[in-house]
């Protein structure tokens, strides 16, 4: 009656090489009940099949199944007893189907079932006792359905449930009855719903809750946080809601909280008592809000804080004592605010700093770099001061950082040239990709340049990385010259390829001279090109008398003016 050869073409044995695992795709309803040796199979996966309906006792021959997946198979209907006989089943997935109602689909309890995945279906509501024949469930995934109603006692009897995923549904309101009796629940995912309000006793019996995701909802008030059930929370995600104001001591009951994400809300200020009680907090994210004011004592309670992200707000200044109590800080993100000045002593108390990110502010001084804590290990510190308005910095303080980015500032040309002629370590970056030349030729697009101001004019300095190319070669043990993509030299100056073993000091000097000559020729050519293209006069090509920095006059700004 069945044709093993025909069927074999449809079989897809993938990661399971033993007989007890079977993965099928593109199968159909007539074939599944005919699978040979069904009673030996422990893991059965049916994907992309055509199985719109499962009849009663459909899997009765698979009496040893531990894991069953019927995914992406257009399933919309299961008869009331279609799971009969699966007494050993531990894990069951019906994700990516077309189910609109949920029942037990069995006449007796599936006592071994611990994991149920019904994600990506069309379930709209959960009725009472939906899971009462699955008493040992530990994980339920109901993500990406259309659930807007959860009846009282829907999860009744699930004393072992630890993980419940309800993300991507249409819940608007969290009722006190929804999660009643889930005493072991440790993570609850409610992100990407339409939740506007949460009743005060919603989590009253979930005293083991450690992780709560509420990001991507429409919460305005966080009052619900003060209920007893949330006292052991460790991770709380409130990103992408509409919170405008944090009440004083609003987090005072969540004293075990370690990670709090409040990004993408509409907060405007952080006051002294805002975070009181968060003694264990290690990671705080309040980026993408409208914060313009941080009280000097607003972080004073956060003595365990390791990471803080306040980027993309409207801060103009930071009180000098702001980080005084946060001695464990490693990662401070203040990028994309409007900070004009930072007190030199702001990071005086931090011995473990690894990242200071200040890009995209309007700082004109970076004196705090000179007053970092003496015990701080500078070799592990990364500082990003790009896109500010710095005119000069004290170079001797910067030489021993792991990396410092100084690109796109308002450098004074005289200071810059004086400092660039010294050999800078690769950990200091001034350059940014110079897009001005994009239009000339494909090859020129990767030039690195530094902008600076001299008197009232803007100038640009182009970095010809001759020193870098040669330096790199000396450390290579064999092979031919190659070009380092992140540090490209201007392409018209193509370097001759020579084997490294002939690279003694004499040839270094010779090649440097050749390189300088080519650089001059290239610059002359570029200038002619400018003159021709831009019809400009009066610019004089000036090259600096060192080997890896050249400077010339034409700039973007000048072009715009003319
Ligand atoms: C089911 O698949 C078998 C081959 O395995 C094929 O012979 C049969 O026609 C298919 N039935 C339907 C209804 O598509
Ligand atoms: C099932 O179909 C989807 C597209 O509909 C495809 O991406 C996926 O790889 C298929 N899976 C299998 C196991 O054939
Ligand atoms: C078979 O299913 C069991 C129970 O879910 C699981 O622990 C095991 O990893 C699965 N084996 C394979 C090879 O997928
Ligand atoms: C799911 O059901 C809807 C309506 O009943 C239907 O339009 C859709 O084609 C079905 N999807 C699949 C994958 O069978
Ligand atoms: C919070 O959720 C957002 C997505 O909405 C995610 O990008 C972010 O990483 C989450 N935060 C934490 C701390 O897990
Ligand atoms: C944020 O709050 C301000 C008032 O504080 C309001 O004018 C603005 O519309 C709010 N923005 C959003 C996106 O809700
Ligand atoms: C803070 O949240 C924003 C937006 O969700 C995210 O882009 C950023 O990476 C987070 N910061 C940290 C330090 O994780
Ligand atoms: C850049 O520095 C010059 C002095 O070198 C100063 O006149 C100018 O105002 C500064 N520009 C900005 C935007 O701060
Ligand atoms: C340069 O830009 C102009 C206009 O911006 C465009 O018309 C022209 O095609 C570009 N030339 C090249 C070589 O891309
Ligand atoms: C120099 O550059 C700055 C910032 O890019 C700009 O605001 C200013 O107008 C420029 N000055 C001149 C004289 O072009």
Automatic annotation (TrEMBL):
Signal peptide position in this chain? 1-21
Q: Name one Pfam family in it.
A: LRR_8
Q: Which UniProt keywords apply?
A: Leucine-rich repeat, Membrane, Repeat, Signal, Transmembrane, Transmembrane helix
Q: Which chain regions cross the lipid bilayer?
A: 508-526
Q: Does the keyword Transmembrane helix apply?
A: yes
Q: Which InterPro entries match?
A: Leu-rich_rpt, Leu-rich_rpt_typical-subtyp, LRR_dom_sf, SLRP
**Superkingdom in the source lineage:** Eukaryota
Keyword rRNA processing appears in the UniProt entry: no
Q: What is the name of this protein?
A: LRRCT domain-containing protein
